[in-house]
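If your schedule permits, I should be very grateful for your opinion on a structural question. What I wish to show you is a protein chain and, alongside it, a tokenised description of its three-dimensional fold. Would you kindly read the sequence against the tokens and tell me how you understand this chain to fold? Here, with my thanks, is the record as I have it:

===
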Amino acid sequence: MTGTLGNEYDAVIIGGGAAGLNGALMLARARRSVLVVDGGSPRNAPASGVHGLLGHEGIDPAELLERGRAEVRGYGGHVVSGEVAAVTGTEGDFTVRLADGRSVAARRLLAATGLADELPDLPGLREHWGHDVLHCPYCHGWEVRDRAVGVLASGPMSVHQALLFRQWTGDVVFFAHTAPPPTAEQAEQLAARGIRVVEGKVEAVEATDGRLTGLRLADGTVVEREALVVAPRMVTRAAFLEPLGLLPTEHPAGVGAFIPCDGTGRTEVPGVWVAGNATDLTAQVGASAAAGAAAGAQINADLVAEETRLAVAALRGR
């Protein structure tokens, strides 16, 4: 991915996923100078397709982003490859410094770098992430329908995941692993849905010819499974905002860390917005794109308000 890098922009968008590109599209169509800086490591890269996105069901994630980049450029927006090391300055005069030493000025910022999935430390698990090892029933439930699915107790939402995946298959096993045992209420819920609970620590993921076949317990028992559901810890990728005093906040559900914002994507730092998984840890592609569009519109409105104030002041000063 190549692109022109100017000196100053109305808005710099950090992150070129669904949220960032849709924010850029709104701003470029509003005749704003806009730059998207993208690190090239989208969260959904391991997935074979994007699901639940009307009109684009099953589209390859890379193809969707390439279409988005082309649309942004078609309206004069700039899209470049790079990692943002840090952002400094204040509203109207931000400096965005890239890891390779380049820097640009920006009047407004939109952080849309998504999140990192911190997976359970289990041998053989990471190799299957996004294929046989899953987390979202709405992203992957249809693809594992009627198959033997295991749910690893790896986070506070694991029982909830098991109950949800039961909608797609009648063969769900809940692996207690090293987590505290389900509460009496949770055990009753699992039993009511016909979900068997397997006690004991899981030692490794078993596979044959690159396909997950089961989970091996500490006592050597192998429980055959065709897919495994885990609950990763989801952490926003926004360390570059720390110089502005904008730090991640622990999610109240205990599932990760995010950048807080109001309903429009505006953060507590004037001039900085956030959209997508960087602030909404569970947002799918469609929701992230919508949030990016909303943030882009709000940034344009904020710039219009600023420009109007300046024009009124100049008019009065004549």
The CA atoms of residues 70 and 79 lie 9 Å apart.
